Amino acid sequence: METDAEEVKVAFVRHIIATLAYRGGKAVRGAPSGFGEFRACEGSRAAGEILAHVGDLLDWTSSFLAGKQEWHDSTPLGWDDEVQRFFAGLAAVDSAFAAGARSQVPVEKLFQGPIADAFTHIGQIAQLRRLAGSPVKGENYVAADIAIGRVGPEQAPPRREF
Predict the structure, then answer these.
(1) N or C: which end of the chain has fewer CB within 10 A?
(2) Residue 116: inside a domain
(3) pLDDT < 50 stretches in the chain
């Protein structure tokens, strides 16, 4: 019975990763030129620095799934490269879960730590888009077509934006 419960948890966390891909893709897609350097105010992180941190969070999650815990503070790449890194990180996490990798810590802890943190930072990027004059449209995310395993830049089109 415990195996079934673990399989349900893993399926749910894979859906969470797919949701991060959908929402993150929406936040990073179509960003204006120079957006990676945009910051809300002096002393705050630029959009590219935030996205690099999300990449670090996904790498950290992958390290747990590889049986170790390694954290790196990466120097931000250019915006397009960080976007590619974001999707590659999502794919690595999803692939590890799909292949049966299990973390040293429970999946609930991975969610409450790096994965939830990544959602927070994707929200910051969406807010910075608005401040930069390039807002991301709101959406009824309950209606969104989000599928386990769809973690790349190609996402289903929005069903109900507003």
Answers:
(1) N
(2) yes
(3) 1
Count of domains observed in the chain: 1
What are the backbone dihedrals phi and psi of residue 156, each rounded to the nearest 5 degrees, phi first?
Answer: -65, 145
Cα 143 from chain centroid?
A: 19
**What pLDDT was estimated at residue 32?**
97
Q: Does an H or E element contain 85, and which?
A: helix 79-98
Instruction: Give dist(CA 154, CA 21) in Å, integer.
Output: 9
Question: Which pLDDT score, from 0 to 100, does residue 2 have?
Answer: 54
Q: 96 with 68: CB under 8 angstroms?
A: no
Is the residue at 159 inside a domain?
A: no
Residue 160 lies in a domain: no
Query: Residue 161 domain-assigned?
Result: no
Question: The domain that contains 110 carries what CATH number?
Answer: 1.20.120
Q: Which two tokens stand for residue 141?
A: 């995310």
pTM (2 d.p.) = 0.95
Helix (H, G, I), strand (E, B) or coil at 29: coil
* Amino acid (one-letter) located at 47: A
> What is the distance between the alpha carbons of residues 92 and 61, in angstroms, rounded to a whole number?
9
